[in-house]
Design brief:
With about 180 residues, this protein is an alpha/beta fold. The chain has three helices and five strands; from the N terminus they run αβββαββα. It is elongated and about 100 Å long.
Length: about 180
């Protein structure tokens, strides 16, 4: 009977340890899930836009680099994707920076973001890509060139690789190549 009593105590102790471990594991899983959700919130739109830009760039012999998590020349992380025109077959002829926003900016914030991204990435042109028409900055128009080197385009947040992004890409690319040749 002593053996049986001791075995029961051991089993009870093991059950208690298992319970503590399961609670800890559940807590760690909840924390990991919350961290991942927080990370996904700001990055998923940016990643989708980058994948779309990379696909478009490949078709033209350009190189698209995801730079949103890398510090640039000034030490900030401004500029989500940099496209180097002609870089897959030779030297870079011009740079375009794409800044992606899934929230609405004021027109002053939009220009501040684009100017900073262009400076940070040494880009010749800046494109603000916003998630849907509702995020176009007040007082600004989509697909209208500003200051000779900035444009705003609204895309579907879930599928940003639609016609609007392709047309903007082609326009900016041609604009920069024409300016370079003249």
């Amino acid at each position: 009977q002593k053996e049986s009593h001791r075995s029961q105590k051991e089993i009870a102790g093991l059950k208690e340890q298992l319970s503590v471990l399961l609670e800890r594991q559940a807590g760690e899983a909840a924390v990991a899930e919350a961290e991942e959700a927080g990370t996904r919130k700001g990055i998923t739109f940016e990643e989708r836009v980058h994948v779309a830009l990379e696909r478009i760039a490949d078709g033209f012999g350009d190189v698209a680099k995801h730079t949103g998590n890398e510090k640039g020349v000034g030490g900030s992380k401004k500029g989500d994707t940099v496209v180097e025109i002609g870089a897959s077959s030779g030297s870079c002829q011009a740079k375009v920076v794409f800044e992606d926003k899934d929230r609405k900016l004021s027109k002053n914030e939009a220009w501040s973001e684009l100017d900073a991204a262009m400076a940070e990435r040494s880009a010749d042109y800046g494109v603000l890509v916003v998630a849907g028409d509702e995020n176009i900055p007040a007082g600004r128009d989509e697909l209208h060139e500003y200051q000779g080197n900035k444009l705003i385009v609204a895309v579907d947040p879930e599928e940003p690789d639609g016609l609007a992004l392709k047309l903007v890409y082609r326009y900016v690319r041609l604009r920069l190549l024409a300016a370079r040749s003249s």
